[in-house]
Amino acid sequence: xxxxxAAIATLVACLAGSPWATAGQKSPxxxxxxxxxxxxxxxxxxxGEIFRRAHxxxxxxxxxxxxxxxxxxxxxxxxxxxRSPVDILLRRIGLPASQGFVxxxxxxxxxxxxxxIVIESGSFSLEDVRQVLQTKGxxxxxxxxxEGYVAHRPxxxxxxxxxxxxxGERLAVDGSQGAFVVNTGVLEIDGAYLxxxxxxxxxxxxxxxxxxxxxxxxxxxxITGLGFPGFLEGSGVAxxxxxxxxxxxxxxxxxxxxxxxxGVALAGVSGLDxxxxxxxxxxxxxxxxxxxxxxxxxxNIVSQRSGTHAIKVTxxxxxxxxxxxxxxxxxxxxxxVDGGSTExxxxxxxxxxxxxxxxxxxxxxxxxxxxxxxxxxLSRGIAMRSVLNGNVEKNDLLGNASAGLAISGQFEHSxxxxxxxxxxxxxxxxxxxxxxxxxxxxxxFSRQLPRVADGDFATNLGGxxxxxxxxxxxxxxxxxxxxxxxxxxxxxxxxDFSACIAxxxx
Length: 506
Fold this sequence. Notes:
Blueprint: H1 4-15, H2 31-40, H3 47-58, E1 80-85, H4 86-93, H5 101-107, E2 115-125, H6 126-135, E3 142-145, E4 148-151, E5 155-157, E6 161-165, E7 170-174, E8 181-183, E9 186-190, E10 193-197, E11 208-211, E12 215-219, E13 222-224, E14 237-240, E15 251-254, E16 257-259, E17 264-267, E18 270-275, E19 278-280, E20 287-290, E21 293-298, E22 301-303, E23 311-314, E24 318-323, E25 326-328, E26 335-347, E27 350-352, E28 359-370, E29 373-375, E30 382-393, E31 396-398, E32 403-408, E33 415-419, E34 422-424, E35 428-433, E36 437-441, E37 444-447, E38 453-455, H7 461-470, E39 476-479, H8 494-501
Parallel strand pairs: 2-5, 2-6, 4-7, 5-8, 6-9, 7-10, 8-11, 9-12, 10-13, 11-14, 12-15, 13-16, 14-17, 15-18, 16-19, 17-20, 18-21, 19-22, 20-23, 21-24, 22-25, 23-26, 24-26, 25-27, 26-28, 27-29, 28-30, 29-31, 30-32, 30-33, 31-34, 32-35, 33-36, 34-37, 35-38
Antiparallel strand pairs: 1-2, 3-4, 36-39
Helix pairs in contact: 1-3, 2-3
């Protein structure tokens, strides 16, 4: 396999004769990217093969670090299964939920007093659940047919209970009966299928929600058709208010396929790995992270043609690692970080052909963007707006339809370090407005000439090029006027923000 340096050199050679007007478009200049984009849409092409081609194209490969260690802690207690009214169960878990979520879920039920399956204690398989329901005279709650199991009622896994769906098993959740799955205990889906049947035209679709102390492990499985539009809790696979878990390990999503609506959403979660998954044909953000901590999003392949962003981090999330992902053709930004998020590292990703910006950061602190290949996006390659303690280092910014790197609206007393980046054939290399203080070190603009700079950077272009040509040690610093209005840090967590500004760098 070629080294990343060799791969980038080859890609640069292909770009050398390419006018910026073709950036982001299907063209002879992007044969490798065209093929890679097509392959990400095809589930008959393995993840390993896609990463192999991404390595050939741009030197990007998976981290191969795997998910969190440890096993789920399955309860060794007496098995107990019961029924309970759906409205009582939903209201017990729905107090902190999105406005209207409980009401919309109840509206989808076939009757006001509809009941759900409740795993109260002990560990169950799907067959265990079916047999217990059969002995109680409720055969129609969970049926078994030639294609697998069909749940016609919601399933609640309560604290102290567990459900295992094992290799080769299939569970379809009946949307026409308002069915879904809620886990506050332990759920394992390994080598299985979780999908929907009978979805109505009302807009309701089944979902899988893990909340409170629940722990969920989904691995080597296919998740299809899940997702209740309009509510974070109704995302294909959602995790909320999960800071404390009774399991010995946090939740993990590893080596799965999510398609036809099924995305992943986190809110109020601490400690979760999303590793090695594929997201195809989703109508919304593939991975949404809100007010979460210690989350790792790595080795995933995201290819979706509708919806919003591929990966979004917001609402004061902190300590995130977004690395070694392949993101092609995002309908919005490839990776979007905003809302006072802190301590976010975005590294070693391939982000191409986003309809907006490849990597966009707006209103965040201590953000490091390192060693990414950002190419042929229909707007900017990387955008940094109102970022405190930011670092943009060793990225390859190639053929983006606007600036390779755009900086704007910086805080008055913040600085941004831009070093060792490779700018090739973007419409502009650097673009800036109210950039504050920017330190530039050892960036390569040799294949970006003559469109090196725009905005605030254009007035400093002569000094920058002279400094770069002189081989002087140190950094070239630019300081531009920022708005006189006081900086607004209210969106940040006081604790995380204080820790961030105490650091010397991201």
